[in-house]
Design a protein that fits this description.
alpha+beta, 51% helix, 7 helices
Length: 209
């Protein structure tokens, strides 16, 4: 299904480059956000590396719920369709999106648990909004693969809200894909919620195998 394809492509955001950042006019770097991002990715990969831990999946889910602002991202991906949805439908969608995103992160990051991700710098977009650049260190690759994370917050307390690959932000890509689905299904947010739940189950089954 198309959303499954998006899921597979989207998580490459966590392992491939954000080349477009190279053309952005440099802004002040944020060492605090860089330290946070490095610790965050080290912890996430560390959880997935411990394949002997029967609680690995539960720990990774808790990790994502703690450090990702999935609600903000979920509501953004609905675009204009958010205005026509009831509060109950929005809450159900946010829950489904959170589980979907967690499953995508686990499925894709698990493939790279044997590699190292390293911070290379950051850009302050505006106060409390920082893009942190990283590379995936892979001895088999000709060049380091580049990653970008968008963090909101400050003072050592941040949430990540987006990731980027080849100049495309994950949330923007999902918003476009969700809009396509909704336009074909009468703008029904519950229909999208049901579809995301099905995709999540497929992703989780794949990881389990």
């Amino acid at each position: 299904m198309r959303l499954m394809t998006v899921a597979r492509r989207s998580f490459l955001t966590l392992v491939v480059g954000a080349a477009a950042l190279a053309s952005v006019t440099p802004a002040y770097a944020d060492a605090d956000a860089e330290r946070f991002a490095q610790g965050l990715i080290d912890r996430g990969v560390g959880i997935l590396r411990n394949t002997a831990d029967p609680q690995r999946r539960a720990k990774f889910r808790e990790f994502i719920l703690t450090y990702a602002d999935a609600r903000k991202t979920a509501l953004f991906t609905l675009g204009s369709y958010r205005r026509g949805a009831s509060d109950a439908d929005l809450e159900a969608f946010v829950k489904a999106f959170t589980e979907f995103a967690t499953a995508v992160y686990e499925a894709r990051l698990d493939q790279y648990k044997g590699q190292t991700l390293k911070v290379t710098g950051s850009i302050d977009n505006k106060p409390g909004d920082i893009t942190v650049n990283m590379v995936v260190v892979d001895p088999a690759a000709r060049e380091p693969l580049r990653v970008a994370f968008r963090l909101l917050g400050g003072g050592g307390a941040y949430k990540f809200v987006d990731v980027q690959v080849v100049g495309i932000w994950l949330s923007v890509e999902q918003r476009e894909q969700f809009a396509g689905f909704l336009s074909k299904n009468g703008g029904s947010v519950p229909a999208l919620t049901t579809h995301l739940n099905a995709q999540t189950q497929q992703l989780m089954a794949g990881v389990a195998r």
